[in-house]
Amino acid sequence: LPGQILDQWFESEPLKATLATDAVIGAMASPHTPGSGYVLLHHVMGELEGRRGAWGYVAGGMGALSQAIARAAAAQGVHIFAEKAVCHVLLGRDGRAQGVALQDGTEVRSKLVLSNASPQITFLELTPQEQLPKDFVQRIRQIDTCSPVTKINVAVDQLPSFLAAPNTCNGRPLPHHQCSIHLNCEGTHLLHQAFTEAAHGHPSSRPMIELCIPSALDPGLAPRGCHVVSLFTQYTPSVLAGGQPWDEQARNAYADTVFDCIEAYAPGFKASVIGRDILTPPDLERIFGLPGGNIFHGGMSLDQLYFARPAPSYSGYRSPIPSLYLCGSGAHPGGGVMGAAGRNAARVALEDFRRL
């Protein structure tokens, strides 16, 4: 339990609760849920420029990371086709993957196919079911993809000024504006309470909010004097109580709750908002192909990690289909912007490629 781990190291309840948010981030779990201690470890195990546990912003926004990978690949002679939806994986008579068919009818032939999509999309939608072992299909169907995350992107015409650390008269970003700001995290009991409400199908009345202002470090993201604010919030159930839909009314009601909370910490925040984009779990699934809206392509619980990710006997990136590999967050070691799954999968695929 993360609570026990944090109790051993710290005395301050606000500090423990703030750290506990990394134990439940993206997970439909409370800090009191057994196993969530691993999620905490997962989020502090990396390093940035030699600093262990440090996090960073990507200059130009997260999309710039994809662009950097694309440029590196193109420099090696890779051809990239964007906005080309894949219809299914092509199989030869010997059952091997031989490329992919696109929705416009084009067939792209290759000796290997690596899928960065979720295990569910890769194996349940893009691969002929009759070519897969029944127990494997069953396992993929059973992956717990429950997600509590609603992401809200906000454009504001002034920097939020927090009661705890008011802005200076020149309106320039202060050190705390360049960090991850955690709200409604004064105690672990608040996180547990927020989780309990969502477990019963109701969006949290006092949600856990991680607020980042990337434009405080990267001014090119917004016009002069304006800022973009990224709100990573939970808990919101994928399916609302009584089967209510996540319609415009429900989404705006939840966003208003989040904004009311921020207003209590930073008066004037609501008046500064000039635009907002609300992405509930169903939106994250529809737009980004995240099963259940899960940012990790599947829960990071102990029964879905290590040798069991995405399924027992298939944690080594190879799939039941020869020459088809899984290289995304649904593979070992799981989600997070670290590239480990992709790097490991590439090494396995290269090893096999030399034998073809």
Automatic annotation (TrEMBL):
<keyword id="KW-0274">FAD</keyword>
<dbReference type="InterPro" id="IPR036188">
    <property type="entry name" value="FAD/NAD-bd_sf"/>
</dbReference>
<dbReference type="GO" id="GO:0005759">
    <property type="term" value="C:mitochondrial matrix"/>
</dbReference>
<comment type="subunit">
    <text>Interacts with COX5B; this interaction may contribute to localize PYROXD2 to the inner face of the inner mitochondrial membrane.</text>
</comment>
<feature type="domain" description="Amine oxidase">
    <location>
        <begin position="35"/>
        <end position="162"/>
    </location>
</feature>
<dbReference type="Pfam" id="PF01593">
    <property type="entry name" value="Amino_oxidase"/>
</dbReference>
<dbReference type="InterPro" id="IPR002937">
    <property type="entry name" value="Amino_oxidase"/>
</dbReference>
<protein>
    <recommendedName>
        <fullName>Pyridine nucleotide-disulfide oxidoreductase domain-containing protein 2</fullName>
    </recommendedName>
</protein>
<dbReference type="GO" id="GO:0016491">
    <property type="term" value="F:oxidoreductase activity"/>
</dbReference>
<keyword id="KW-0285">Flavoprotein</keyword>
<comment type="similarity">
    <text>Belongs to the carotenoid/retinoid oxidoreductase family.</text>
</comment>
<comment type="function">
    <text>Probable oxidoreductase that may play a role as regulator of mitochondrial function.</text>
</comment>
